[in-house]
Amino acid sequence: MSKATERKKSAFDVVFRLIKDMKPILWWLVLATTVSLASVILNVFAPDLLGKLTDTVYASINDNQPIDWHLFINDVILLALVYVGSALLGLASVAIMNNSVSRHFTCRIRVKMSEKISKLPVKTVDSTPNGEIISRMTRDVSVMGSSVHNIFGVIINGVIRLAVITVVIFIENFYLAIAVVVFVPVSIILSGILSSKSEKYFDESREISGKVYALCEENLTGFDTVKTFGVEQSQNARYEKLIDEQAVKGRKGYVTSGMVQPIVALVNNLAYVVICLIGGYLVINSQVSVGSLVAFIMYTKLFSGPLESIATGMSMMQSTIASSKRVYDYLDLEEMAETDNHGSDNPTLGEVVFDDVYFSYLPDKPLIEGLSLKIKAGQKVAIVGPTGGGKTTLVNLLMRFYDPQKGRVLVDGQDVGEISRSAVREKFGMVLQDTVLFSGTVYDNIAYGNPSASYEEVEKAVKMAHLDSFINSLPDGYQTQINEDSTNISGGQKQLLTIARAYLADRPILILDEATSNVDTRTELIIQRAMDDLMQGRTAFVIAHRLSTIENADVILVVDGGKIVETGTHSKLLEKGGLYAKIYNSQYGYEK
């Protein structure tokens, strides 16, 4: 995904948007924060109880005062209950947070990303490696989920704890509290400096991560090709190079962010030293008791805890911000302009018109210029021409994968640019050269284009595609599982399955993209016969490389350089002796 398509977002923009996206789980977060606050309040009582117990023991040793063991044991039990209660409340807060984040936040973001794919222009999806999208939907969204913990579970709870404990220590002893609080700005400034430095490294690390996912997806998809050409070592070298680059950036990011917590801990330990010096002086001068000093040191420990949590949260936030940027950049990509108009309710006859159409994939490289063409309903139209001549582009315009920059494409007199893409595509069935089957049963794959079809209708489609004998030979028949890569059935059988799928979908206009190019001669004849049956009564566009398969076409369009340079039947084009005749003669090894 190019940088040009992504809007620059500041860390503030990302955090603000994260908080906005937390709205659906707000009450869960409030509950988790309330439970956490209850845990903090319980913790606040603990140092005071411990201080009283210390004073009791100290008085017994130094002043020979008798211990009221009943009261002493009750205080010990109460102290234990406070600690246990605080721990249980802390666990409950974490459980609530995990449940709300996993079930509602992370899941919802992934659903939004999945919905986004269906709204993106084909051009955007074509230009983005699959691994890059997968990286953003999996790893980056998972890291985003942790940001909710950072913001609420660490930072906000840390701030609440810090505020509560600050009030308590000032009530306990004003001068000692001043000694503690004076170190807070130092911790915050150091945390901010180091966190901002780590953000840059995490951004770069996440960018490389997308490339790693893309390369892995590429190697797995093209596994046979990698093996055939023996390029495993070079591909591994590319992978190692990316991993090394990611490791360097990640290490710098984690080392920089990892320095935050130890530095904050060092500052807090310096605060301990100061408190011990001042507290010792106050105890010697009988201005505070030993128990009060012990309690205050405990409060100081409680005070340093949220400071370290906030510092840790800030350092972790840099990683989550980097991932969140990538996710939001994806969600903010420009979507296809769409309309709710579903066009006429009249049955589609299949008349297709290209009216003065201009189109190019790149602004500075015109492809189709001023194309005008009329296809009558029910005609079989063959499209031939050299590679890059514009054959597939015509199909892309028909299906509204792309829209023309100028001119119109009409079906039955209706401009397809004025009706929704889904309504346009409901008119078309497709059988492509590169067959696509999905994990699932044979039955599921045939019924893919018409899930509501009955079993009898599926059987009819199978017989029309000459697949019945093949399916009957399978161990589980229609319920035979097709594996992820469809390697447990042959190429010809895959193609026949897609023909059965197209027949079952029963669309009035067909697009057949050289469906016989990857099979043997015998299978080609079977597929050709199945396609001839499929095309009966339908307008059909056949992109052909083997010209023998389109000799009976009603009209042949010879496309070159985005223009239709010849039009006619097979015999008339051969007689003309133009580009079509040259292509035909080159395939069959003679000059006419």
Task: Give an overview in words.
The protein is of the alpha/beta class and 592 residues long. It folds into two domains: 3-331, ABC transporter transmembrane region fold; 377-402 and 425-588, 3-Layer(aba) Sandwich (Rossmann fold). 63% of the residues lie in helices and 10% in strands. It is built from 20 helices and twelve strands. The strands form three sheets. The protein has a six-stranded mixed sheet with strand order 6-9-10-3-11-12, with helices on both faces. A four-stranded antiparallel sheet has the order 2-1-4-5, with no helix packed on it. It has a two-stranded antiparallel sheet with strand order 7-8. Strand 11 (555-560) and strand 12 (563-568) form a beta hairpin. Helix 3 runs antiparallel to helix 5 (130-172) and helix 15 (455-464) crosses helix 17 (491-505). The longest helix is centred in the N-terminal third of the chain and has 51 residues, at 69-119. The chain is elongated. The two termini are 49 Å apart.
> What is the CATH topology classification name of the largest domain?
ABC transporter transmembrane region fold
Determine the fraction of residues in helical runs and give it as a percent range.
55-70%
Q: Can you tell me the number of structural domains?
A: 2
CATH top level label of the largest domain: Mainly Alpha
Which second-level CATH architecture of the largest domain applies? Up-down Bundle
Radius of gyration: 36 Å
Widest sheet: strand ordering: 6-9-10-3-11-12
Structural class: alpha/beta
Low-confidence spans: 2-6
What amount of the residues lies in strands? 5-15%
